[in-house]
Amino acid sequence: MRVVISAGGTGGHIYPALAIINKIKEKEPNSEFLYIGTHNRMEKDIIPKQGIPFKSIEMYGFNKKNLFKNFKTIGCVLKSFKTCKKYIKEFDPDVVIGVGGYVTVPVIVSAKKLGYKTFLHEQNSLPGKSNRFLSKYSDMIGVSFASSLKLLPKDKAVLTGNPCSEDALSKKAILKSELGLSARKKLVLIVMGSLGASMVNDYLVDKLSKLEGKPYEVLFITGKSSYEKVISNKFPSNVKVLPFYEGLTSVMKKTDLMISRAGASTLSEIISLKTPSILIPSPYVANNHQYLNALDLIKEDAAYMIEEKDLDGDILFDKVDELINDDKVLNKMKENLGKLAVADSASIIYDNLKSLIK
Fold this sequence. Notes:
Rossmann fold, six-stranded parallel β-sheet, seven-stranded parallel β-sheet, alpha/beta
C-alpha cells in the first residue's frame, strides 16, 4: 500500500497517525509512506526519527489577536495547495489520510481534487474545525467516540476507535520495582500531560505533601516544564515524582487509579486498558473538547470528573481515598470502560482503508 498521511501540531494527532502507519506496516511490510506536516511543529522532529519520509509545508493557524498576521497565513495556505499537489502527484498514493491539525486541510483538499481516495480520523468527541470542513472532501471518516457519528455525514462516518488504544494493549506491563514502588500497595498515577499543567501542579504539590501514612503509593509525572519547580518541594516516602515516562501505558497496566487530563489519546488508553480514573479536563483547549471527551465516559459511569475550577480544599484526594479503598466501585468502572472499548481500532482502520481502495 502506498500512503500519504498528514497530522500535525500535537501528539494527540501525531501518535494516532503513527499507530495507523505501524498497523499498515504490520499487515503489508512492503508499504511505502509519505508524511506531510508543518515545518515548525512537533512532527518535523518525531517523524524523521521513525524513518518515515517527511515533507513539510509552511502553515500557521489563524491569529485572533493580531489580524495583520493572517495575511501571511493566507499566503502560506494558498502556496501550500500547490506544494501538496506536487508532493501527492509525485508519490502517487493509493490513499491519502488526514489525522488532524490544520496542516491536513491542503493535503486532503488537494488529494480529493486530484482524484485520490481520502480518509480522515477524528480523535475527539467533538470534531475539530479542520475535520468538519474536510468532511465534504473525504471518502470516509473514522471516529473515536460513538457520539461523534451524529455530528458527521452518516454515509461517511464509521466508529473505529482511536488507534492508540491497540498500541496500548500491545505494551508489556512494568515491574513496579523498576520505579522503586511496592508490589503490595495500590498505585495512584497522576499525569498532567507532557508539558504539565502549572495550576493543577501547584494544587497537587500542596496536597501530596500531606499523604504520609496513606496505604497507597502515588507516582506523580509532572511534565518536563514543571519538574524542577515541583521537585524542590519535600514529599512523603509514598510519593514518587518524575518529569516524564516514555511508554506510559506500561505503567497504566499496574495502576489502580489514574488522575489525568482528558485528551483523546489518553482517554483511548484509559478505555482500552480499563484504568479507573479521575479526569481533570484542560479548560484551555479549543471548543472545550477535553470536557466533552470526558463526558462520554462520565455518562457511562466509566470515570469521575472534577473540573479545574472546582479544585479546592481536599476535594481531589477525598475522592481518591473514597475510590482507592472501594474495589466494588473500581471494578464497576472497569466493567463500564470495557463496554466503551474498541480494542482493535488500528486493525479496523486498516480494514476500512483496504475497502476504500478497492
